[in-house]
Amino acid sequence: MAIDPMHEGRSVFARMRVDTRPFRHRDFRNLWIGQAISTIGGEIGTVAVPYQVYTLTHSTALVGLLGLASLIPLLVVPLIGGAIADALDRRTVLLRTETGMAFVAALFLGNSLLAHPRVWLLFVLQGLAVAIFSLGRPALSSLTPRLDLSYTPSACGDVNCTPIVTVDSYTLLNGRVTYWSPQRVWSLALQVTNLTDKLYYMTKAATGVGYIDGQIGAPREWALTLHKQF
Questions:
Q1: Which is more confidently placed, 15 or 72?
Q2: Are 220 and 192 in contact (CB under 8 A)?
Q3: Domain boundaries, the chain
Q4: DSSP secondary-structure letter at 155?
């Protein structure tokens, strides 16, 4: 619903109408139709899969476990999808994930056509479907989350690898949330490094008898970045 500013002399109710002008563009029509089909299919699957599990098992507990199978990839995979959406072309990501969703839908259909549909396969396919959907979702969104995990192995501080100057291994967790403008002309990113504020050493060295010199790694740090394309 939109108010047409081109006809200000008309009444408010006459000016309030559904704006269909974007449908004049072929690319928008294809996007709208494709998303409509995908959304309708997804909603059908949301109802059909739990119903099939209950029909086959008559167990409400298994229906609840099906929700748990969906929850885990729904929470974890978007963080990976955010990194993929940042690194790759978003159109390519969407094409591949939508193709994956169509393939999983075909597997659902094949399982339902069996004389004795496999319940365990429904759980596997449901988790896979949610994972693929969550992988492609950040490419559709203006808000992209990203979580990075970096591991640094232990390192010797001298040629003899003396334990007191050996740098212990450490794992750092970094996070970032990026907002893209609708035209993707500018972006605003909030980044946090060393999310858990871990205390770790980057280097250690013996500087004298009884003296150890070490460089402590950076603590938790926050950064706000504004990026504009010209």
A1: 72
A2: yes
A3: 15-141, 144-228
A4: B
